[in-house]
């Protein structure tokens, strides 16, 4: 029996619990608006979400999965678009498909966990087990010492199985192929934990899907064959997956990882609104910059400059001179007179004589330029630098705070909590079928939810994911960010603390745009002890996310097994491209479209946007004023 | 609470709150009164103790109450109180202190009481105290109470063998941590300056490692002032590291004036006399006998002024012609004017006997310019300022100063207006000069640089203009003296100088000194000019002429166009014939007139024209009569 809403009229309905939607939810409820807040996901945060490992895999598969099947469904969807309900134009939403547009080139890889001597082998060492369904009954050999399959002897068997599965008429159905693969894995993996079973299932279904895709093609390439056959014998992959699934709940993996500047729009909003008391933060410890196979600590604050041993005394002075000026540059217009329209780089090199590594550090680690420095003029550069510098010293020697338990969902939930405190109604895992538009006025009037209940409101605040596909014109040029989430087993820099930022300036790892790597450790409550999460991001440039980021990752992580004990080993890497969509077609004016995460490292632009939306909806009203003094709680009416 | 809206407190609620506060104040005053009553009655009982607890947990800065509390505590532990009970009592006292510390982490009385407890308890836990003070300094790394307390705790811990070994090193590392967190921390640098000399006492450190340690210190502090040249904490530590050589006070010369039966003794610095200097003479049997008499300095006008000075006069009780008069001065007999100078060894000075210079060209009565210059030098055999951290040779000292000069100059290339850099450079240059000697070319160049630096600083650092004007005056004066000596026709080419003894051959007769239009604000060492008869210091910025009292041979003084506000220091100048104080800042007739009270000179022309007092109330006739009454030989010129 679906739970129907008692109240079906609201001031505002909000679709999606992303960052902007949630701020608006809090702000609107705070001033007394009635708010209904829905999310089709069963978690908070939408495209800004923090997921645990299992959820992340699920998310990956749901987004990827749709890619493979969407081709067939497009006709069907076109028919579904036109409908009328009670004289209103009913526009069908398609959350799954629309959300999928925001992502591309998704791929993940799972790596073997480096072996400890006393580890219990997951795969049995019994020679008697054989590969099923294959005529060749030769046995598989496992090395006693490190449990790595001795491929020289056994690989042909897997090749044979792979070839068999790819060509056999017998196994047309996805499920049946998956079953065969599952059996194959199970025959080798004797430790039957829940995670092992789950890992086998996930891996079998992934391989089955892969096989299914290639079955349709005429020629099976050697490459495909090799891939399938190695996957069939890759028990370590399952082993790693099982471990990650087991510790899944201890991960909070951000789809759009961001930092909170210690002075800025968001932090002031958190403090003023009182949302800060729901959240916990840690200071980001250090910033590193890469140049020619070495990572240097970036001297950002006065203390950093003082303690930094890689820059000379004269450089220290030059840098401090610039930083002191930039902090307060508007009071010294003479210093940059004539440079306003020139490149920021020109000001730095000509006026402040900053060059070499130091120049890179100022541009990419302090001003945090995310694209091409040749597009940044002096004023823009100074603004960026000032924004960074103002953040220093407020919460210790750092410019940024890192949210504990992930960033996006936590902050979004904080604002949702304000909304709930002031009477907002929440329903997660609740999707929307149609948006209703009054044709004469071209205004949004309400929606039909998954229970076919009609709910009306004056305003609709919606994540782009809920926008009916009819509004999308296709082939639009969206700001695209290549991202990666990588789980590793060691710190990438010694003494880097719980959170660190590493920056690759352009052209240092064959990258056109700067790449940032945010490393978090267990101290930030986003991963278990002895695990570290890397978030890589850069402006998209090459063919896919992996191509954009792999070189940077290669400098930090050991992709060759046991090559070097000191370098972190990867366990899992997810690459994807994430787009900040813009809608060029006309949307009814009472629909507020809350945007996707942008490519920046912070929430500043998004916060400003949320505030502007609020002012548009409720002119003259105060934006998230402080709640009552907790000391006066005794005077609740 | 969800879903319910809150309302503002009403006026009634506010009123209630105020009433509650008023009753709190009343209650507090009541407790204080009760406590004082106990104190007056000397009732050191449990109740008194509870009262002090109540007061101090609200107001930990009430030191009278702390004192009373100690009396109560002492009373409690006197008598048959066991050691364990005592320990228990003080332990709970320490806990109480920890609580009130939160109310005010910078209260002298809390720290005072804590020390008292620890000093009185049977088994103080110093390790615990160290942990506590670490926490304090984590909360506020610049709380000097905390640092002071830390030194106290460390001094106690270093008496415990198990800690004593490494405590210097760990403390030193602790200051490094704090400095790295924020180097703008005087307390941390200060702590370091206390620890570095102790670290150097480590016998396991060889000279090279000691030297490396010092080099590291210089690197650290350089990194700080390159990072922020405006942060004075780093500069002050740098100054401490460089150190200043203690300059040796020396006697410029001594002679016996046979006409007036007086010994004149001149120091190159102002000294106070604790024990009269000894005067001996050779009698007929070649025995040295003590000559009785009394000493006074020629400084200023009052008897108090004459307790110290540059130039001292000895008047023997018996006026007779002495042969081979010797004056002895021991270090412990004098008080230096400041800590930067000292008398290092006994001085035995043979007086030269003769008549006053203006009556005969007697060669004997002279100061040697060579001695003047030599004495301004540091004695190379005893560099002492940095012995506490690392004994250095003179060459090492010169090398250090030179390398620091380069470092600071590099900084000045980027920050030409950095006042701390400029000041440091002036210090370094002057230190170098004192080592290499006043009369070297390098020293002359250094002085020129210092003058340029001062000119800059006077413009940059308006709040300290006077200081830099004085420093500049010193450099100008020393340059002038040097020039005087260099250009003197009789200056000997070679100087042999030993044990502060005056040379008996190759003396120079210099009697005129001119230094005009240099913006001088002071004459740093007037005794150097002791032999001068004609002095021209016109067109400067001197504010006082009291130093003239030292120049007892003066005949003509031109000091017009300065900033002098009164006439003093001249009434004992017996040979003064001309005094030009035209166009100064003398505001009243009295300020001019009083300088001639007890006039001891002869005929003297004094030009007072162009001073402000004349414009105010021009009474030429009256003033001339008055002047005639106090000093009839003095003829004044007064023109508006």
UniProtKB/TrEMBL annotation, chain A:
Naturally occurring in which organism (per UniProt): Cetraspora pellucida
GO CC entries: cytosol; nucleus; Rab-protein geranylgeranyltransferase complex
Q: Which residues cross the membrane?
A: none
Q: Which Gene3D superfamilies match?
A: FAD/NAD(P)-binding domain, Guanine Nucleotide Dissociation Inhibitor, domain 1, Guanine Nucleotide Dissociation Inhibitor, domain 2
Give any GO molecular function from the UniProt entry. GDP-dissociation inhibitor activity
Location (main, coarse): cytoplasm
SUPFAM superfamilies from the UniProt entry: FAD-linked reductases, C-terminal domain, FAD/NAD(P)-binding domain
Q: What is this protein called?
A: Rab escort protein 1
Q: Which family does it belong to?
A: Belongs to the Rab GDI family.
Any Pfam family: GDI
The answer on whether this UniProt entry bears the keyword Transmembrane reads no
- GO BP terms in the entry: intracellular protein transport; small GTPase-mediated signal transduction; vesicle-mediated transport
Keywords, sorted A to Z: Cytoplasm, GTPase activation
Q: What does this protein do?
A: Substrate-binding subunit of the Rab geranylgeranyltransferase (GGTase) complex. Binds unprenylated Rab proteins.
Intracellular or extracellular location(s): Cytoplasm
From TrEMBL, chain B:
Superkingdom in the source lineage: Eukaryota
Q: What is this protein called?
A: 9723_t:CDS:1
Organism the protein comes from: Cetraspora pellucida
Supply the source organism's classification. Eukaryota, Fungi, Fungi incertae sedis, Mucoromycota, Glomeromycotina
């Amino acid at each position: 029996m679906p739970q129907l809403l008692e109240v079906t009229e609201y001031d505002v309905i909000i679709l999606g619990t992303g960052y902007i939607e949630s701020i608006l939810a809090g702000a609107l409820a705070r001033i007394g608006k009635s708010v209904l807040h829905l999310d089709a996901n069963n978690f908070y945060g939408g495209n800004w979400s923090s997921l645990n490992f299992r959820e992340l895999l699920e998310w990956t598969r749901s987004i990827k999965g749709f890619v493979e099947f969407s081709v067939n469904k497009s006709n069907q969807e076109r028919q579904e678009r036109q409908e009328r309900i009670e004289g209103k134009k009913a526009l069908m939403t398609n959350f799954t498909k629309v959300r999928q547009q925001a992502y591309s080139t998704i791929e993940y890889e799972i790596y073997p966990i480096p072996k400890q001597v006393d580890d219990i082998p997951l795969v049995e060492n019994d020679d008697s087990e054989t590969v099923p369904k294959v005529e060749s009954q030769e046995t598989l050999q496992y090395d006693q010492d490190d449990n790595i399959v001795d491929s020289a002897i056994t690989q042909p068997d897997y090749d044979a199985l792979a070839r068999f599965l790819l060509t056999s008429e017998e196994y047309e159905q996805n499920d049946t192929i998956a079953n065969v693969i599952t059996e194959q894995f199970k025959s080798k993996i004797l430790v039957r934990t829940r995670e092992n079973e789950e890992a086998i299932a996930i891996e079998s279904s992934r391989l089955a899907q892969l096989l299914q895709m290639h079955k349709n093609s005429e020629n099976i390439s050697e490459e495909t064959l090799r891939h399938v056959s190695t996957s069939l014998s890759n028990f370590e992959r399952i082993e790693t997956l099982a471990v990650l699934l087991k510790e899944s709940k201890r991960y909070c993996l951000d789809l759009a990882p961001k930092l909170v500047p210690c002075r800025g729009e968001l932090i002031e909003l958190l403090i003023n609104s009182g949302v800060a008391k729901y959240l916990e933060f840690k200071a980001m410890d250090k910033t590193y910059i890469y140049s020619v196979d070495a990572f240097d600590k970036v001297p950002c604050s006065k203390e950093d400059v003082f303690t930094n041993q890689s820059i000379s005394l004269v450089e220290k002075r030059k840098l401090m001179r610039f930083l002191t000026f930039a902090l307060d540059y508007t009071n010294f217009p003479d210093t940059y007179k004539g440079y306003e329209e020139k490149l920021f780089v020109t000001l730095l090199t000509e006026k402040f004589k900053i060059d070499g590594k130091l120049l890179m550090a100022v541009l990419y680690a302090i001003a945090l330029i995310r694209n091409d420095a040749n597009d940044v003029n002096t004023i823009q550069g100074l603004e960026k630098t000032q924004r960074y510098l103002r953040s220093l010293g407020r919460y210790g020697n750092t410019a940024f705070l890192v949210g504990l338990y992930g960033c996006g969902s936590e902050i979004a939930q904080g604002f949702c909590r304000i909304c709930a405190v002031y009477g907002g109604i929440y329903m997660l895992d609740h999707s929307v079928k149609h948006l209703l538009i009054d044709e004469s006025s071209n205004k949004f009037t309400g929606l039909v939810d998954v229970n076919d209940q009609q709910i009306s409101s004056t305003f609709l605040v919606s994540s782009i994911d809920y926008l009916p596909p009819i509004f999308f014109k296709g082939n639009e040029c969206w700001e695209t960010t290549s991202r990666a989430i990588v789980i590793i087993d060691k710190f990438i820099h010694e003494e880097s603390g719980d959170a660190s930022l590493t920056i690759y300036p352009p052209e240092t790892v064959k990258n056109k745009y700067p790449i940032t790597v945010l490393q978090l450790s267990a101290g930030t409550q986003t991963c278990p002890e002895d695990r570290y999460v890397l978030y890589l991001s850069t402006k998209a440039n090459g063919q896919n996310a992996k191509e954009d980021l792999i070189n940077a990752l290669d400098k930090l992580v050991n992709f060759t097994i046991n090559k070097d004990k000191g370098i972190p080993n990867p366990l899992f890497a997810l690459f994807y491209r994430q787009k900040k969509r813009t809608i060029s077609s006309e949307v009814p004016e009472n629909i507020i479209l809350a945007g996707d995460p942008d490519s920046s490292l912070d929430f500043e632009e998004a916060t400003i946007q949320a505030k502007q939306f609020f002012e548009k909806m409720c002119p003259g009203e105060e934006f998230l004023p402080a709640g009552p003094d907790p000391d006066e709680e005794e005077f609740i009416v | 609470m969800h879903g319910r809206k809150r309302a503002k407190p009403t006026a009634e609620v506010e009123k209630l709150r105020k009433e509650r506060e008023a009753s709190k104040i009343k209650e507090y005053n009541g407790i204080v009164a009760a406590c004082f009553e106990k104190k007056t009655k000397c009732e050191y009982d449990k109740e008194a103790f509870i009262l002090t607890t109540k007061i101090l947990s609200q107001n930990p800065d009430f030191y009278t109450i702390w004192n009373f509390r100690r009396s109560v505590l002492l009373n409690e532990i006197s008598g048959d109180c066991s050691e364990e009970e005592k320990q228990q009592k003080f332990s709970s006292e320490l806990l109480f202190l920890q609580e009130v510390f939160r109310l005010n982490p910078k209260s002298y009385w809390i720290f005072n009481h804590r020390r008292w407890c620890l000093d009185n308890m049977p088994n103080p836990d110093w390790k615990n105290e160290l942990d506590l003070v670490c926490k304090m300094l984590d909360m506020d790394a610049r709380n000097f109470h905390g640092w002071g307390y830390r030194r106290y705790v460390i001094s106690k811990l270093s008496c415990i063998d198990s800690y004593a070994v490494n405590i210097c090193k760990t403390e030193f590392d602790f200051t490094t941590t704090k400095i790295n967190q924020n180097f703008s921390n005087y307390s941390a640098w200060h702590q370091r300056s206390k620890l570095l000399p102790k670290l150097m006492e480590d016998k396991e450190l060889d000279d090279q490692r000691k030297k490396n340690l010092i080099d590291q210190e210089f690197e650290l502090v350089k990194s700080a002032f390159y990072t922020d040249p405006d942060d004075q904490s780093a500069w002050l530590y740098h100054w401490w590291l460089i150190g200043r050589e203690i300059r040796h006070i020396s006697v410029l010369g001594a002679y016996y004036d046979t006409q007036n039966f007086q010994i004149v003794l001149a120091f190159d610095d102002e000294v106070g006399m604790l024990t009269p200097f000894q005067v001996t003479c050779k009698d007929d049997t070649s025995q040295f006998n003590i000559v009785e008499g009394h000493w006074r300095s020629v400084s200023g006008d009052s008897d108090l002024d004459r307790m110290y000075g540059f130039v001292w006069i000895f008047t023997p009780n018996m006026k007779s012609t002495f042969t081979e008069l010797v004056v002895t001065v021991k270090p412990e007999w004098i008080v230096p004017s400041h800590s930067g100078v000292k008398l290092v060894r006994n001085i035995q000075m043979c007086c030269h006997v003769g008549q006053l210079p203006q009556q005969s060209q007697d060669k004997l009565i002279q100061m040697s310019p060579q001695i003047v210059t030599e004495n301004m030098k540091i004695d190379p055999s005893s560099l002492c300022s940095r012995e506490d951290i690392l004994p250095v040779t003179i060459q090492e000292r010169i090398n250090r100063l030179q390398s620091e000069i380069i470092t600071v100059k590099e900084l000045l290339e980027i920050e030409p207006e950095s006042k701390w850099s400029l000041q440091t450079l002036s210090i370094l240059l002057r230190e170098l000069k004192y080592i290499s000697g006043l009369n070297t070319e390098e020293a002359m160049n250094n002085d020129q640089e210092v003058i340029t630096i001062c000119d800059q600083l006077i413009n940059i650092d308006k709040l300290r203009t006077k200081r830099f004007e004085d420093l500049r005056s010193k450099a100008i004066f020393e340059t002038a003296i040097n020039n005087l000596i260099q250009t003197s026709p009789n200056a000997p080419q070679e100087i042999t100088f030993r044990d502060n003894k005056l040379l008996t051959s190759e003396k120079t007769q210099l009697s005129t000194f001119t230094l005009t239009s240099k913006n001088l604000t002071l004459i740093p060492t007037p005794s150097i000019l002791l032999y001068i008869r004609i002095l021209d210091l016109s067109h400067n910025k001197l504010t006082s002429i009291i130093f003239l009292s030292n120049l007892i041979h003066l005949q003509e003084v031109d000091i017009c166009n300065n900033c002098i506000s009164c006439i003093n220091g001249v009434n004992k100048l017996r040979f003064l014939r001309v005094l030009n104080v035209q166009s100064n800042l003398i505001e009243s007739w009295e300020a001019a007139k009083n300088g001639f009270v007890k006039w001891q000179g002869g005929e003297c022309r004094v030009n007072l024209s162009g001073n402000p007092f004349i414009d105010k109330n021009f009474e030429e006739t009256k003033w001339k009569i008055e002047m005639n009454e106090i000093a009839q030989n003095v003829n004044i010129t007064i023109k508006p």
